[in-house]
Specification:
By secondary structure, the protein is α+β, with helices and mostly antiparallel strands. An eight-stranded mixed beta sheet has the order 5-9-10-15-14-13-11-12, sandwiched between helices. A five-stranded mixed beta sheet has the order 17-16-18-19-20, with helices on both faces. Strands 6-8-7 form a three-stranded antiparallel beta sheet. Strand 13 and strand 14 form a beta hairpin. 32% of the residues lie in helices and 21% in strands. The two termini are 37 Å apart. It is elongated. The chain folds into three domains: 50 residues, no CATH class; 242 residues, BirA Bifunctional Protein, domain 2 (2-Layer Sandwich), CATH 3.30.930; 90 residues, Anticodon-binding domain (Rossmann fold). One of its GO terms (cellular component) is cytoplasm. It catalyses: tRNA(His) + L-histidine + ATP = L-histidyl-tRNA(His) + AMP + diphosphate + H(+). Its main location: cytoplasm.
Length: 469
């Protein structure tokens, strides 16, 4: 079976007139929906398919870190273990919501709303959006299910795809997977410390390098009532030098100007008043408590008074975790407080704080570990009659926790041993006519080449003793 067997080049999936037709779904009762066998006409000629722009596949043998399934499994395992230790419960929410939910939460002038949301209208005429971030859905669920009536705070985590129609960059995709946490119902600054330390420890455990948390406080109502007019007046005097997005935000949220990527706008902001000069006593005390808490738990941080984040709902604490391993696009995860969001979405006046971190960004910033350890046992079958006994023994060993595989490609004995090497198998079990006649098997140590003859009839217990399990 040499050569490419006439298959198309990698990364193309092909359907053509010579392929068997696909089958259209049909309900068992003859209606639409469900599985069925009604054929869909095959496309005429050769048709090539690629994944949509801004997406990627995770697949066996993936080359980049975010394409490798074993690294995804590690991220999920590490995240679940950390969330268990911090006493966070999981939330699983729809990937689409009413578009108005994101408009009300993120802000009408935010990039998410004005440029990045995937919008569609369903058959009932409702305007929906693929979720661009996780916080609004969690808050909506908190309100809808009356979780504000439970013991507070409610601590939850989520993991799943988010969607933003933005220019693709390294580690940033139109469909990306985000891990996030939300803590609702407590204004305690030590909750901020816990959330930030959880983000930092998640990254640290995954091997993210050279990370520092950048911290700011955007103030409470008293702070903003004094600061925002001063900032707006300053920006009005320099309006001609601001980029169009920043000019559009002057009335509704001039603080978002600090989030501008325009060099001209940033040059204006070098002379702008900073919020630290206007913090109320409560906001200043909150920031001080967060700083002391981060020092106590050993999280490296720096205060950055120009940090505002890109969403309108943030109040008080905001933070970004940045890695020196990522160059200019150095943010791995970020978050902040949103003490007015629950009330703005129809719930009671409850504070909240959370973070989101992209798995792709984590893997890009981390030292990718070596390939996962190989198989425990690979079965080499030298006769057709040996395949069923091998499969039965493999099933028994798998039930005991061993990783096993067999040949399903009709390889020769030499080819099967080569496959055992490819899978980094510790041992090979050889069963052929000779072994079957003696009701035996050969166990070969793939490192040393040493072989032992074991009783096939005894099955898994004999193998487990021999491999040291």
């Amino acid at each position: 079976m040499g050569g490419d067997r006439g298959l198309p080049a990698p990364r193309d999936a092909v359907l053509g007139a010579l392929h068997a037709p696909l089958r259209r779904a049909r309900r068992p009762d003859g209606g639409d929906g469900g599985a069925g066998r009604e054929p869909v006409p095959a496309a005429r000629g050769r048709v090539s398919y690629r994944g949509p722009k801004g997406t990627y596949d995770v697949y066996p043998g993936g080359r980049d870190p975010h394409e490798r399934p074993e690294l995804w499994a590690r991220v999920e395992r590490v995240a679940r273990d950390l969330f268990r230790r911090y006493n966070y419960a999981e939330s699983r929410l729809p990937v689409f919501e009413e578009a108005e939910l994101f408009v009300r939460s993120s802000g009408e002038t935010s990039d998410i709303v004005t440029k990045e949301m995937f919008l569609f209208t369903d058959k009932g005429g409702r305007e929906l959006a693929l979720r661009p971030e996780g916080t609004p859905g969690v808050v909506r669920s908190y309100i809808e299910h009356g979780l504000y009536g439970a013991a507070q705070p409610v601590k939850t985590w989520y993991m799943g795809p988010m969607f933003r129609h933005e220019r693709q960059q390294k580690g940033r995709y139109r469909q990306h997977v985000q891990i996030g946490v939300e803590v609702l119902g407590s204004p305690d600054p030590l909750v901020d410390v816990e959330v930030i330390s959880l983000l930092y420890n998640l990254h640290k455990t995954m091997g993210v390098r050279d990370e520092v948390v950048y911290l700011n406080n955007l103030g409470d109502f008293e702070t903003r009532s004094r600061y925002v007019p001063e900032l707006r007046e300053f920006l009005r005097r320099h309006e001609a030098d601001l980029d169009p997005d920043s000019r559009a935000r002057l009335d509704k949220n001039p603080m978002r100007t600090f989030d501008s990527k325009s060099k001209e706008t940033q040059a204006v902001l070098d002379e702008a008043p900073l919020i630290g000069e206007f913090l109320s006593d409560d906001a200043r005390a909150h920031l001080s408590a967060v700083e002391k808490g981060l020092e106590a738990v050993g999280v490296p941080y720096r205060v950055d008074e120009r940090l505002v984040r890109g969403l309108d709902y943030y109040t008080m604490t905001v933070f970004e975790a940045k890695s020196g391993a990522l160059g200019a696009q150095d943010t791995v995860g970020a978050g902040g407080r949103y003490n007015g969001l629950v009330e703005a979405l129809g719930g009671p006046d409850m504070p909240g704080i959370g973070f989101g971190t992209g798995v792709e960004r984590i893997l890009l910033a981390a030292n990718a570990p070596p390939e996962e350890d190989g198989l425990d046992v690979y079965f080499v079958t030298l006769a057709p009659e040996a395949r069923l006994p091998a499969m039965a023994l493999a099933s028994s060993l798998r039930a005991e926790g061993l990783r096993c595989d067999l040949d399903y490609a009709d390889r020769s004995a030499k080819g099967q041993f080569k496959q055992a090497d490819r899978t980094n198998a510790r041992f090979a079990i050889v069963i052929g006519d000779e072994e079957l006649a003696r009701n035996a098997l050969k166990l070969r140590d793939m490192s040393s080449g040493e072989e032992k003859v074991l009783d096939l009839g005894e099955g898994a217990p004999a193998v487990l003793r021999a491999v040291g399990v």
